Amino acid sequence: MKYVDARDGTQLRVKELGEGRPVVLIHGWPLSADSWDPVMIALADSGFRAIAYDRRGFGHSEHAPRGYDYDTFTDDLADVMAAMNATRDVALVGFSMGGGEVARYMSRHGGKGVAQAVLVGSVVPYLLKTDSNPDGVPQSTFDQMAEGMETDYRRFFTGFFQDFYGDGWVRSRVADEEKQWAWNTAMMASRHAVLKAAQAFATTDFRPDLPSFTVPTLVIHGTDDRTVPIDATARVVAQEVPGAELLEYGGEPHGLFATQTERLAEDIIAFLQRTGGEEGGIFDGLDGASRQDRQAIVDEVTAASVATTPANL
Q1: Long-range contact list for 167-172, CB < 8 A, 24+ apart?
Q2: Catalytic one among 54, 79, 225, 267?
Q3: Does the annotation mark 254 as catalytic?
Q4: How many domains does the chain have?
């Protein structure tokens, strides 16, 4: 395994695949860089250099005793980019809490070296429900999460991943093995890191970071996301970030990297190629199309994919 030293000495496990323009992928809570594997393969096959790393305290990275706040997380991202020589024409892709690193990097580090940004099921701009954020998640929900982890840590994540992947009464959207992998990965993380990181993504307000998004930005979110509600996050970013492109995956849950793996990879690659000045992608030839027309394409492809996916009864 390859490791990079963060500025405070914490060792961060890094993986890369392919050659070309760098795409740095940041994983969600409480998983690891391995959640990006299928997307990394697709990126490499499309001529990009895919780079992913385990957040401090998660996956194979060091279980640091401190540093579980977004300023430190973002400094870690900057250190990974520097160590991997991903410093020019970079695309940042953040899933779930990983979107927070993207937003904070754009403000705290001035977006240095970044040419494009992608937010997937992201917590940006603000997850907590307040008077100024009425569509957010109530504090009581986060309190229940904390209580569940403190009461029976391992059992909590069994239920958490059912919502994460959008399980219903009859049908599961992913195989049991996918949920088992996610549970196993969560158990690899430092419990201290898991608790502190949950507090960070629940309470950090990224609204002041939004004006720093001055590069082409793609926002992807499932409309049935019960983990990170779309109204408080993706739809707000689409309204507040000039030129941001929102792709809503109709009826999809939070874990899009598993429930819509191919579509997610294709949409990210199409965006990187199109806004990066290269040809290709599902929107090729539609530069003048409206957001509604682009969304219609995504909905059609997503519906076709769902229709051909066998139920996991």
Answers
A1: 170/311, 170/313, 171/311, 171/312, 171/313, 172/311, 172/312, 172/313
A2: 225
A3: yes
A4: 1
